[in-house]
Write a structure and sequence with these properties.
Distance between the termini: 115 Å
Order of helices and strands: EEEEEHEEEEEHEHEEH
Helix content: 25-40%
Oligomer: single chain
Number of strands: 13
Strand order of the largest sheet: 2-1-3-4-5
Shape: elongated
Radius of gyration: 35 Å
Structural class: alpha+beta
Length: 248
């Protein structure tokens, strides 16, 4: 891992700025102690740069142990670049108007638990009376159950690709994978109602037209059937008249 919590300052620190004599913990909720590891010359690219590692004596299970390096880095990048990126939280399907969040007026915390203790969020942006859960998608997307429960609790939720977050530069517009679609005002509600009524009218017109076509087709089929029967009867009378003439 490349980030750890500095116990002396209670702030997150990148391994490249850490010292061997510092006291650091990981970013999982249990805050296990980690130590600084300097480049060892090993071929694995992760070990070519300073990084943090759990102590050998740490036998506890770390919640963050299953996260990839990309996932962890993305969480810290969302925190470090607070106010330097934006994303859409809501979009109106009628006027396509958008509500955009910049995360510039509050704080971003890492590994934050929901108020009911049910969920853990990668990051949470908090401003006065306002919270947005910031989830990072690398190998597993946020479940619909978690999304629904989060929004029902009053929090908003946004989800981003880890690769996009790690590659973003100041001023980036992140692609939120969980944008809420919502009618923004009365004018758009009226426009939506008019559009729906127009669609319903068009569907009714098409059904009536289809019904008329079916009735015309049935009438044509009946006419053809009647004509075939008439021709058959006429043919039969002609045959009978011919046989009668032959018998004379």
């Amino acid at each position: 891992m490349f980030y750890a919590l500095d116990a002396s300052t209670c702030s997150w620190l990148h391994a490249s700025h850490a010292t061997r004599d510092g006291r650091y913990t990981c970013d999982c909720p249990d805050r296990h102690q980690v130590c600084l590891k300097l480049p060892s010359g090993r071929e694995n690219v992760e070990y070519r740069n300073p990084h943090f590692a759990h102590l050998p004596k740490c036998n506890t299970e770390c919640r963050g142990g299953g996260e990839s390096a990309e996932h962890k880095a993305a969480k810290h990048r969302l925190r470090e670049m607070r106010g330097q990126y934006s994303f859409v939280t809501e979009r109106c399907p009628e006027c396509e108007g958008e509500i955009r969040e910049t995360c510039s007026n509050g704080t971003v915390g890492i590994e934050v638990r929901s108020a009911d203790g049910r969920w853990w969020y990668d990051c949470v942006y908090k401003a006065e009376g306002y919270e947005v859960a910031l989830e990072v998608y690398h190998t597993h997307a946020t479940t619909q159950e978690k999304i629904k429960a989060t929004r029902q609790s009053g929090m908003q939720l946004a989800e981003f690709s880890a690769d996009e977050v790690n590659a973003m530069k100041p001023g980036a517009e992140l692609h939120n994978l969980q944008i809420v679609t919502r009618i923004c005002g009365q004018q758009c509600k009226d426009a939506q109602r008019a559009r729906v009524e127009k669609q319903q009218f068009e569907m009714a017109r098409q059904r009536e037209e289809q019904q008329r076509w079916e009735e015309a087709r049935r009438a044509q089929a009946e006419k053809q059937k009647f004509e075939v029967a008439r021709q058959r009867e006429e043919q039969q009378r002609w045959e009978e008249a011919r046989r009668a003439q032959a018998e004379k």
